[in-house]
Structures are given as structure tokens and as C-alpha cells.
Amino acid sequence: MKKTHLRTRNHHEQPAPGEPAEVIASMRFLVDRLPRGYVHPCTIAQVKQKLAALPAEDLLGIRRIRLSAAKMEMVDAMYHEGTITIYAVPESFKFSYPCHPGDSFISESTRWGARWQRLGGEWYCYWDKERYGRYILDHVLLHEIGHHQDDFHRRRTGEGIEKFAERYALQAEAGRGTPGRQGSPRRGRESEQADKAERTSR
After folding, report:
1. Are 137 and 47 in contact (CB under 8 A)?
2. Nearest-CA neighbor of 66 among 78, 81, 53?
3. Which end of the chain, C or N, has fewer beta carbons within 10 A?
4. Looking at residue 5, what is its pLDDT?
5. Which residue from 101, 104, 133 is spatially nearest to 117, judged by alpha carbons?
6. Separation of alpha carbons 175 and 146, rounded Å
7. pLDDT tens digits along 178-194
8. d(CA 100, CA 81)
9. Exposure pattern of 39-70 as b/e (b: 16+ CB <10 Å)?
10. Binning pLDDT at 50, 70 and 90, where does residue 152 land?
11. Region for residue 37 given its phi and psi (left: phi exceeds 0; alpha: psi -120 to 50; beta: otherwise)
12. In the 3-class helix/strand/coil scheme, how is 29-59 assigned residue by residue?
């Protein structure tokens, strides 16, 4: 499972930041009805608790957070124009990949508690509910907020889309706030492909 982002070029006026609770109160939180065999990896209450621990300035412009019923292959969450969508997952918390998902992603997910197995040409990833929920709240959600920082605040300084979002997540995890110019490791093939596409479009 991976994170993704739809790039926008909209410019936003930035209101003065207040307390996190004030910004969170201005957001819409949506929960889709789930199909049989699927669950949401976290609750809205857990999402709000995580947001409340972040600087209010980092949350400005996030309009909507949705726990979606959509079943996305190899995608945990997505950011697009002020909306963060977190996708439904199988209630077994077992994910399959038709090809190697990338060393950096395997390393990252293992760090958060995933177990991997290769059977023939297929790769399988196993989570328990609690660890996967923590991964979504404490890393994936922060990664998507990193994409929002890029779009809304225009904080990226020439580095790739995925690289900036991942660096934001890692620094927020460590309690170091919004990224400056110091780099951090890329995310496997998704990062490389996104950054290559971005360079090609310039």
C-alpha cells in the first residue's frame, strides 16, 4: 500500500492561523458506508486527535477529510485540492502485490509492524489492526498533510513532490515541525516515478 497525490496549481489565500481546534472545527469529516469485508483503518475521532497535535498553520486550507469506501490498489490515502481521503482496507489486513513493491516501502512498512512474504511472483503484506491504524495515523496522514503543505503554502524548494511530503511526515513524527531545506530518504519507486514525471513536465 502506498500514498499518492494529485498535483494542483490552485493558489490559496492564507488566513491567519489560530488554535488547531479552531481550524479542525472548520473542516468537514465524512465517513462512507463500507462494503462487506472492508473496514476503515481509523476513526474520525482518532484523526481529529492527531490533527490537534499539529501546528494550526499546517492545517489551514484542509477542507475535508474522508474515510472512503473505495478500494484502491496499492494506495492508502490521497490528497487533492484540500481534501485528504483515507481508503478502506480488507478486514483481514492482508494485501497482495503482483510485483516487488520497492525496498524502501518494504523497509518502512516493516518498521511500522508489517510482515512480508513472497510466494512465487506475488508479494504479500500482513498487518494487525492496531499497527496498521497507527501507521495510517502517525505516518500516512502526515504524509498527505505534507502534500497539502506543498500545494497550499508552497513550501517545497525545488525538491520532488513525494520527497517533500515524506520529509514532512518524518519531521512531524519526530516533533520537529515543518520541513526546511534538509533532505530525507525517498520513498521507493513511487517517489522516483512521481519526481521523474514532475521534472518531465517542467
Report:
1. yes
2. 78
3. C
4. 52
5. 101
6. 14
7. 554 333 333 333 433 44
8. 31
9. bbbbeeebbbebbeebebbbbbbbeebbbbee
10. confident
11. left
12. EEECCCCCCEECCCCHHHHHHHHHCCCHHHH
How far, in Å, CA of 38 to CA of 200, rounded?
Answer: 38
Cell (9 digits) for 32 = 462512507
d(CA 144, CA 62): 10
Alpha-helical (H) ranges within 53-187 are: 56-59, 103-111, 129-135, 141-148, 161-173
Distances (CA, A) of 86 to 38, 77, 119, 145, 173: 13, 4, 28, 12, 19
Grid cell, residue 7, equals 498535483
Amino acid identity at 169: A
Q: What are the residue ranges spanned by the domains of the chain?
A: 2-190
For the chain, what percent of residues have pLDDT higher than 90? 63
User: Can you read off the three cell numbers belonging to residue 71?
Assistant: 478500494
* pLDDT tens column, 71-89: 887 899 999 999 999 999 9
Q: Cell numbers for 101, please give them.
A: 513493491
